[in-house]
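Session log. Operator J.P. requested a structure for one protein chain; no other inputs attached. Running the standard single-chain path with token output.
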Amino acid sequence: MSYVMWKVLFASLLMTFEHMSCTEESDQSFNDASVLTLPQSYRVDWMRSIDDNKLISDITIPGTHDTMAVHGGPAAECQAWSLADQLRAGIRYLDLRVFAFDHKLYIMHGIIYQHTTFTEVLSTLRDFLKEYTSEVVFVRVKPDGKLFHKDEVQGLVEKLIADDEDFWVEAAIPRMGEVRGKIVFLQKDSFKLGIPILGTDKKDDYEVTHVHEKESMIEAHLKEAEGDCGGGDYVVLSYSSGTGIGTLEGMFLTPKRIAEKIDPWFYGYLNKLHPEKGSCFGIIAMDFPGFDLIQTVIDLNQF
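Structure written below.
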């Protein structure tokens, strides 16, 4: 069988498995529906309850991994909701893979264009924060595109936001009252604007061959995050996401298939936690989270 035919067969098998794996959950911990339907009582502006004097490094924040990855098929898709809907569902941390080409910034997932630009993302964020002025959105920009102009990403971002007071680009940890209504950049690796990130994930932790092993890893990372959270010089970041694509044993474990198993487990695990008032876990980035899981992460703050 030729390489091209093998790729077509592999893609077809992935789509078949994805279709077979879709089941209705009794809770809304996992979501693969593109349309957001929130309960009538759902509170979009949940950050209103946070004390203005609280350091943002002391807050537990729900986020999404590869936030804009809604195109590209089963191997590439990590979310179902649009950015605007993720924000309304309570997501406050965005993981953006940004590609520079011809002096413009595009949102990518690997080689797959996600049908939007960085400028359009900022417009969506501004609209949301104009409506919900109590909220803060944390953004990590990860420059992408090894063969093109990866080193141009930060400079182009700086030009876009020059002298704009709606952004926090300092390394110092602000208090909540200082950044309400703002976009707070987080820095790591080749992007050096904003607050430093301390990640609990190590190299290749995103690779999943057995879901139960991923569960144990998430649990260990969350305990590590709790110990590091509130350090004062950084924001802690953990991931519950993963993929088996690229591995032999987990070749059919797409991000969605993993999230379908992990999200309900994670929802149950978090609901069993009884953190003392004042404890935190930092940012938790997820694939395909439903609003029940997002709300559970929010509730860890014990306002």
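Operator note: The two ends are 59 Å apart (CA to CA).
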